Amino acid sequence: MELRPFDAANHLQTEEDILFYLEAAMEGNDARHIASALGDIARSRGMSEIAKRTGLGRQALYKALSENGNPTLETLTAVLSALGLELTVQRRGDREAA
User: Of 17, 26, 81, 88, which shows the fewest CB atoms inside 10 Å?
Assistant: First the structure.
């Protein structure tokens, strides 16, 4: 039996998968974890394609969206837009009430 490291990008197949994965990553309020999760999502959709859509370099995206990355807000919004997503804000607690 061959064991390979787990790669979330291989399991993000539907839009629903992506939304749940990103929502879960954001719950921890950890910027590095969010960046890494967004990197997993971008890789699941093809980093070259995301780079083309954002106008950013592929290597720069890999670095910014890694576990040790620290993407700018501009990079974050560009990647989200390329994925057909947007950044929204809501008051804490509103989610639990819904």
Answer: 88
